[in-house]
Specification:
By secondary structure, the protein is α/β, with parallel strands linked by helices. It has two domains: about 250 residues, 2-Layer Sandwich (Transcription Regulator spoIIAA); about 60 residues, no CATH class. Helices cover about 40% and strands about 20% of the residues. β1, α1 and β2 form a beta-alpha-beta unit. The two termini are about 30 Å apart. The chain binds iron/sulfur cluster (SF4). The site of iron/sulfur cluster (SF4) has 11 residues, from loops.
């Protein structure tokens, strides 16, 4: 069964490392957006019943609870097992948590990024570790204890000691799910742009070197494993039974429908996405036009490799895929980035670190 993704692009601030279609806009625009998001969902013809809902963005925890509840009400609810909302620390209150629970939300993903205050502040965040601790108990009181904590390895000024301190908080708070992202320098974030220009703003001159970031990641993999949260996907770690049902749909190439700004959809063969500007999204829907920006046909065999191989369990290629991708498979096996277990292929520990190199091998391989 399929998933539903909903985007709420509004934030209290634009974090320096962020490369999402999100930002700070006036309240009046938020209300127009909420109305048009509900309209887009209402206009959808459901050919299947969703199993998961995921509110991302942006900071959907800042959405008016009644607007969120209204949007949830127009999504068929009979088969929903998991409904997640992404939250910025500092935005969780008892009233909001109770309203989310009443609207059907049963999982929260907290974008902590760092428990070290100086690191968090430099990126634009204002929370402390104690705020996160307090908000987790607010969520638990509201009946939401299926929680993910996001951390970023590679923030400006991060050291091995500060990284260990962040993981110490993870150990103390014991969430059942953790996501670890390695900061990538590219022009899609202000911090990345500054680093590419060789500047000093946002701490771009004190970014840890690549080999240190790789060391942070490897340390986290081992520490989380010992804590009973093995890696099940490159960036995701969970206690057994707490893996994200929604995100697994992306990696298992199951269908999902996205609503809102920059929301992506996949129906099993076609992929499409909505426009990535809130103003454009709102005005299109207000005049009765489609918010869809582009559409493309998937090469499911290619995607089976560069999406499915993200999973620790790897993939079981079809006979046709073994034949079509024989050369890249052999090269990745020979370089020790992939390993074969009977009919399955999966990344090695080194392959996880150099996964982009592996995925590159399977893009645009000639079809047979
Ligand atoms: S990181 Fe999250 S809170 Fe910060 S700007 Fe991006 S979407 Fe908003």
């Amino acid at each position: 069964m399929a998933g539903v993704y909903l985007s709420y692009p509004f934030c209290a601030q634009k974090c320096t490392f962020c490369n999402f279609a999100s930002g700070v806009w006036p309240d009046a625009m938020k209300q127009r957006y909420e109305r048009m998001l509900a309209r887009e969902i209402e206009q959808h013809e459901w050919n299947w019943l969703p199993e998961t809902v995921y509110w991302g963005g942006g900071t959907p925890s800042l959405m008016r609870p009644e607007a969120l509840e209204g949007a949830m009400r127009v999504i068929p609810a009979d088969h929903i097992r998991e409904a997640t909302i992404e939250c910025a620390p500092g935005s969780v209150t008892a009233e909001r948590a109770q309203a989310w629970r009443a609207a059907g939300i049963n999982r929260v993903s907290l974008g902590v990024q760092s428990f070290v205050e100086a690191e968090a502040r430099r990126t634009g965040r204002k929370h402390s570790a104690e705020v996160v601790q307090r908000e987790l108990s607010v969520l638990a009181d509201a009946g939401i204890d299926n929680v993910n904590i996001d951390l970023i390895a590679g923030l400006p000024g991060q050291t091995f000691d500060s990284w260990r301190a962040s993981l110490g908080w993870v150990e103390r708070l014991a969430p059942p799910h953790v996501s670890i992202y390695m900061f990538e320098i590219d022009e899609d974030s202000r911090l990345g742009q500054e680093a590419l220009l060789g500047g000093t703003r946002y701490g771009a001159d004190v970014l840890p070197p690549d080999d240190a970031v790789a060391g942070f990641y490897e340390y986290a993999v081992e520490r989380l494993r010992v804590l009973g949260l093995p890696r099940y996907e490159i960036s995701n770690f969970a206690r057994s039974g707490f893996e994200s049902v929604h995100n697994l749909k992306y990696w298992n190439l199951e269908p999902y429908i996205g609503f809102g700004v920059d929301a992506h959809s996949f129906d099993g063969s076609l992929r499409w996405s909505n426009v990535d500007s809130p103003e454009d999204y709102i005005t299109r829907l207000e005049r009765g036009a489609s918010p869809r920006a582009d559409e493309s046909c998937s090469d499911l065999e290619e995607e089976h490799f560069f999406v499915g191989l993200r999973l620790a369990a790897g993939i079981e290629p079809s006979a046709r895929e073994w034949s079509r991708f024989k050369e890249p498979i052999d090269r990745s096996l020979a370089s020790g980035l992939l390993v074969r277990d009977a009919e399955r292929l999966r990344l090695t520990d080194r392959g996880f670190l150099l996964s982009n190199e592996v995925f590159q091998e399977f893009v645009h391989a000639p079809a047979i």
